[in-house]
């Protein structure tokens, strides 16, 4: 997901693809980094990516940095790790997840299925 943003600060300041307005920054939290483990999603700005899933669905994260979207309308899910973190974005026909759907069990399989059905 991080490549989709305008810029990032992961190793050094660098440009992204600019498909989602915003910057990738280190998570500012008192909790241990990297953030590794299962966290629940809070859905916002209704998205077909989460069709068939309930608000509060758990998915698997492994990250130290996160996207900070300039437009709240691009944010389709958040999670809490001591601070609110953007967990998924969409802008036009571009979608990205901060979490790992492939490691997120049944919920992840549903999300991958939904990705595949986006352009049908």
Automatic annotation (TrEMBL):
Gene source species: bioreactor metagenome
Query: Mind giving the lineage of the organism this protein is from?
Result: unclassified sequences, metagenomes, ecological metagenomes
Keywords, sorted A to Z: Amino-acid biosynthesis, Glutamine amidotransferase, Glycosyltransferase, Histidine biosynthesis, Hydrolase, Lyase, Transferase
Provide the catalytic activity annotation: L-glutamine + H2O = L-glutamate + NH4(+); 5-[(5-phospho-1-deoxy-D-ribulos-1-ylimino)methylamino]-1-(5-phospho-beta-D-ribosyl)imidazole-4-carboxamide + L-glutamine = D-erythro-1-(imidazol-4-yl)glycerol 3-phosphate + 5-amino-1-(5-phospho-beta-D-ribosyl)imidazole-4-carboxamide + L-glutamate + H(+)
GO BP, one example? L-histidine biosynthetic process
Q: Which InterPro entries match?
A: Class_I_gatase-like, GATASE, Imidazole-glycPsynth_HisH
The entry's protein name is Imidazole glycerol phosphate synthase subunit HisH
What subunit structure does UniProt give? Heterodimer of HisH and HisF.
Query: One GO molecular function term?
Result: lyase activity
Pfam families named among the record's database cross-references: GATase
- Enzyme Commission numbers on file: 2.4.2.-
Q: What class of enzyme is it?
A: transferase
Its pathway is:
Amino-acid biosynthesis; L-histidine biosynthesis; L-histidine from 5-phospho-alpha-D-ribose 1-diphosphate: step 5/9
Enumerate the spans annotated as Glutamine amidotransferase domain: 2-115
């Amino acid at each position: 997901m991080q490549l989709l943003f305008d810029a990032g600060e992961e190793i050094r300041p660098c440009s992204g693809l600019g498909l989602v307005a915003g910057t990738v920054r280190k998570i500012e939290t008192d909790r241990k980094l990297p953030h590794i483990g299962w966290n629940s999603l809070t859905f916002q700005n209704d998205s077909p990516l989460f069709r068939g899933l309930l608000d509060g669905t758990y998915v698997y994260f492994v990250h130290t940095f996160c996207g900070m979207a300039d437009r709240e309308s691009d944010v389709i899910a958040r999670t809490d790790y001591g601070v609110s973190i953007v967990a998924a974005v969409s802008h036009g026909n571009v979608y990205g997840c901060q979490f790992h759907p492939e490691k997120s069990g049944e919920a992840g399989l549903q999300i991958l299925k939904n990705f595949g059905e986006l352009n049908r």
